[in-house]
Amino acid sequence: MKALLLENIHPLAVESLERRGFEVELRTASMSEDELVAALPGVALLGIRSNTTLTARALDSGSDLLAIGCFCIGTNQVDLIAAADRGIVVFNAPYSNTRSVVELVIGEIIALARRLTEKTAKMHQGVWDKSANGSHEIRGRTLGIVGYGNIGTQLSNVAEALGLRVIFFDTADRLAHGNAQRMNSLDDLLAEADVVSLHIDGRPGNAGFFGTEEFAKMKPRALFINAARGMVVDDVALRENILSGHIAGAALDVFPVEPKAQGDEFESVLRGLDNVILTPHVGGSTQEAQEEIGWFVAGKLAGFALEGRTELSVNVPAVQAPQLAGSRIGYLHINVPGVLAEVNARLAEQGVNVSAQYLATRGEQGYVVTDIAEPLSSAAESALSASPHTIWLRSWSA
Ligand SMILES: NC(=O)c1ccc[n+]([C@@H]2O[C@H](COP(=O)([O-])OP(=O)(O)OC[C@H]3O[C@@H](n4cnc5c(N)ncnc54)[C@H](O)[C@@H]3O)[C@@H](O)[C@H]2O)c1
Q1: Ligand 1 centre and the CA of 134: distance in Å?
Q2: Which atom of ligand 1 is nearest to the CA of 100?
Q3: Residue 84: which region, alpha, beta or left (left: phi > 0; alpha: psi -120 to 50)?
Q4: Is the CB of 51 under 6 A from ligand 1?
């Protein structure tokens, strides 16, 4: 099977796919829609990053295409519905940059507590201003984590290792890591935290989540960090609180409006403020995260192409099946009542013995993975494929 990887995807992905027997073509640039239309025939796996747009027209040319790997976090560049309609499975790497974000936030907590931005700016101007005023250790301070998901929990662990006391608030029930303490409300957290760090997701209800009222409830001279989503914070309210001195410092990696292209001007009311660290949405951008993404997405592509596993797919039902040991059927179908019974009846008619079965549905599609005792016969394959509910049927043997 051929894998086409665009946009300079990490060499670890190439190595991982070649080791599993794929023929890999690696290109450094992205492709236009017309270039994709010409290149996709014969390609089973396509790897892209954020600069390749996959439209329905491009996907139509991918008659051999089984799966697309987005070697990044976002999947907006792919027409996910059109891909699902064509039975093409899409994966991404939602968690591979977690550690990178956590390390940035830890660095920022220390930098803000020591007012390093001011000190380094003065030194570059030739001013030697040696003073401990306003500089603090982070040991023993209270970090309030809002949003205790993948990033929030990992931040919790690393922060505790550095001697911070961790409290957190999440709208979902989350297990406290280490000695972290769950707060019953955002207000309770704001009343106690010396540093507030936001790690909530970008669901629409979170727009404008943190503004004038929330800043007012923070402890005087507390620090504020947002590496989650730009739209969750009212930057004008933050500016006022920095200027008034109520908030002693802030670090922002994400903004309500971010420049589209490299080199475009960054416009924000937060520019030019003392002890405010501004970074261009680089929380997850490290070489290590790229390597992790390469390894992770290549594994998902291979796991699907060679064993039918769709776990963590972003557009078709996600089935977490065990490693392939004997023979397996993967059956993507239209999600109507009774398909599972129909699959099993058709298999039984053909004398196929089912050893394990895993089903998931998502919207209009269902996917069932059936492990069977013997390799699927062509008669059984024809019997199952003949169902009016079939989108595709594939089989594998270890
Ligand atoms: N700066 C970067 O480069 C970068 C990189 C990766 C992720 N992110 C962002 O970081 C954020 C966290 O990512 P994650 O992988 O940990 O997400 P996640 O989905 O694992 O965790 C989000 C948590 O926030 C909680 N939550 C949602 N709304 C809430 C609210 N209003 N109040 C309290 N809790 C709430 C959820 O229940 C969940 O536990 C996301 O917004 C993501 O887009 C930024």
Answers
A1: 31
A2: 5
A3: alpha
A4: no
From the CB of 227, is ligand 1 less than 6 Å away? yes
Q: Is the CB of 200 within 6 Å of ligand 1?
A: yes
Paired with 246 in beta bridges are none
Does ligand 1 have an atom closer than 6 angstroms to the CB of 168? no
147 close to ligand 1 (CB < 6 Angstrom):
yes
* Candidate from 96, 182, 199, 255 with most ligand 1 atoms within 8 A of CB, to mutate: 199
Q: Is 30 helix (H, G, I), strand (E, B) or coil?
A: coil
Q: Please report, as a single letter, which amino acid is at residue 193.
A: A
| Cβ partners under 8 Å of residue 192, min gap 6 | 142, 144, 167, 183, 219
* pLDDT per residue as tens, the chain (398 positions): 999 999 999 999 999 999 999 999 999 999 999 999 999 999 999 999 988 999 999 999 999 999 999 999 889 899 999 999 999 999 999 999 999 999 999 999 999 999 999 999 999 999 999 999 989 999 999 999 999 999 999 999 999 999 999 999 999 999 999 999 999 999 999 999 999 999 999 899 999 999 999 999 999 999 999 999 999 999 999 999 999 999 999 999 999 999 877 888 999 999 999 999 999 999 999 999 999 999 999 999 999 999 999 999 999 999 999 999 999 999 999 999 999 999 999 999 999 999 999 999 999 999 999 999 899 999 999 999 999 999 999 999 98
What does the alpha-carbon distance between residue 283 and residue 31 come to, in Å, rounded to a whole number?
Answer: 27
**Cβ of residue 151 lying under 6 Å from some atom of ligand 1:** yes
> Which atom of ligand 1 lies closest to the CA of 94?
15
* Residues sharing a CB contact under 8 Å with residue 249, sequence separation 6 or more, in sequence order: 112, 113, 115, 223, 224, 242, 275, 276, 277
175 CA → ligand 1 middle, Å: 16
Q: Which residues are catalytic?
A: 229, 258, 281
- Position 43, amino acid: V
Q: Rounded to the nearest 5°, which phi and psi values hold at 385?
A: -60, -25
Q: Phi/psi class of residue 245: alpha, beta or left (left: φ > 0; alpha: ψ in -120 to 50)?
A: left
* Residue 51, token pair as written in the block: 């600069």
